[in-house]
Amino acid sequence: MEDFETLLDISTSIHGHICAGQVIGVRMAMLALSLLDIEEPKGRDRKKLYVFVEIDRCATDAIQSVTGCSLGKRSMKFLDHGVMAATFVHLESQKAVRITALEEARETSKKYCTDVDDKYARQLKAYKIMPDNELFKIEWVTTSIPAADMPGRPSRRVQCCDCGDWVQDCRDIEVSGRILCKKCAHGSYYQLERKE
Ligand SMILES: [Zn+2]
Ligand SMILES: [Zn+2]
Predict the structure, then answer these.
(1) How remote is the CA of residue 184 from the centroid of ligand 2, in Å?
(2) For residue range 152-162, what is the model confidence (pLDDT) as tens digits?
(3) From the CB of residue 6, how many other CB atoms can be counted at a distance below 10 Å?
(4) pTM
C-alpha cells in the first residue's frame, strides 16, 4: 500500500480539497487496514473488505479512496447516524473493528503545531502527526452483513405492482399479498410533476 502522504494526495484530488476530514479519513482507513492485516485493499485483497460508514462527510471520501470500497461496488454501506465513525469488516476472518474519530482531538491538537495560529490549519497539521490513540477510539465488534447487502449479482429482481419499477436485492415489500417498491409502500421522497 502507498504511504500516508501519497494516499492523502490521492484522496484530496478525488474529494476536491484538502481538509482535516481527509487527514482523519486516510489515517482511520490506514489504521483499520493494519488492524485487519489487509495490505493491498485495491489489489490482491480487494474482495476482503467491507465498510460501514456512519456519516456522509469529508472523511467518508477518504475512506473510500484508501480502501477502494464504494457504494457502487456494494462494499461500502452508508448508515445515516451522523457519527464520525466507520466499521471495517474483514470478510474472510469476519473480524470487525469500529473506529471513531475522537471529539477531544480538537482540544488535544492544541498541544501540537503551536506555531500555527489559525485553528483549522493547526488541526489539519496536528492530525497528521498525533498518535492514533489521541485521534481514535478503537472497538472490536461483531456484525453480520445480510446476504442481500453483499457484493455480487442481485439475488432477486421483481417488479412493483403499482408503479412498474423493478426492484433489486430484496428491497421490495409485500403489502396485502402485492409486491411493492419502497416508495409505493411507504411514501416517496419526491412528488411527480410531469412525465415525458
Ligand atoms: Zn473536505
Ligand atoms: Zn412502486
Answers:
(1) 4
(2) 899 899 999 99
(3) 11
(4) 0.94
